[in-house]
Amino acid sequence: MVTTALMPEDKNSHTLNTIKAYGNSLLAFIRRRVKNDADAEDILQDVWYQFSAVVNAEPITQTGAWLYKVARNKITDKHKKRSESLLDDLFISDDDSDEDADYRAILLTEANTPETEYVRNLFWEQLFVALDELPEEQKQAFVWNELDDIPFQEMAELTGVPVQTLVSRKRYAVLHLRKRLKQLYEDITKY
């Protein structure tokens, strides 16, 4: 497909037509891959912002493919940020130094080598094994808050359990997971 340079008024029209053509399907695509509507809408807004910046600077030959690629990248970025905070909760305690955060370079690296993929899979596998060892209430509090990104207030409304009790359950889960994953952490950071 050949793309021609657009005049400023044509760019605005092109942007609006693109939003109309792809808006609903792109939002549905994003919603299927994130935990809540607010995150989906934030990601969609980021995609449109990036689209408006790029369409003014350079022509896009395959608009649909470009939009979905940007959306996938934004979703991946969101998941990485979630994973970073999860990893911090599990591996860094108050007495740890910044030097011990080398695991992040391995688990969150962009590189998809067989080694990094193996370590990532091993980490998630061991995490879920350790989660299965917890009492159901602690496991649920941890999974809902850390993996499903459900705030404690919303969890309290769903379960009828006080927020402080849910925070305490998650804390016990984190302590168990730290202890249980300590050897994996040491294996990851020594290389």
Residue-averaged pLDDT, rounded? Answer: 77
Enumerate how many helices there are, as a single number: 8
**Helix proportion:** over 70%
**Main beta sheet strand tally, sense and closure:** none
* Alpha-carbon distance between the two ends: 48 Å
Query: What string, H for helix and E for strand, traces the elements in order?
Result: HHHHHHHH
Question: What coarse outline follows from CA principal-axis ratios?
Answer: flat
SS content category: mainly alpha
Number of strands: 0
- Computed CA radius of gyration, to the nearest angstrom: 21 Å
pLDDT < 50 stretches: 1-7, 95-102
**Percent range for β-strand residues:** under 5%
Quick description:
By secondary structure, the protein is mainly alpha-helical. About 75% of the residues lie in helices and about 0% in strands.
Give your account of this protein's structure.
- It is a single chain.
- This protein has 191 residues and is an all-alpha fold.
- Helix content is 76%, strand content 0%.
- It has helices at 8-31, 37-57, 63-91, 103-107, 114-132, 136-147, 152-159, 163-189.
- Helix 1 crosses helix 3 (63-91), helix 2 (37-57) crosses helix 3 (63-91) and helix 5 packs antiparallel against helix 8.
- The longest helix is centred in the middle third of the chain and has 29 residues, at 63-91.
- It is flat and about 60 Å long.
- The N and C termini lie far apart (48 Å).
- Mean pLDDT is 77; it is low at 1-7 and 95-102.
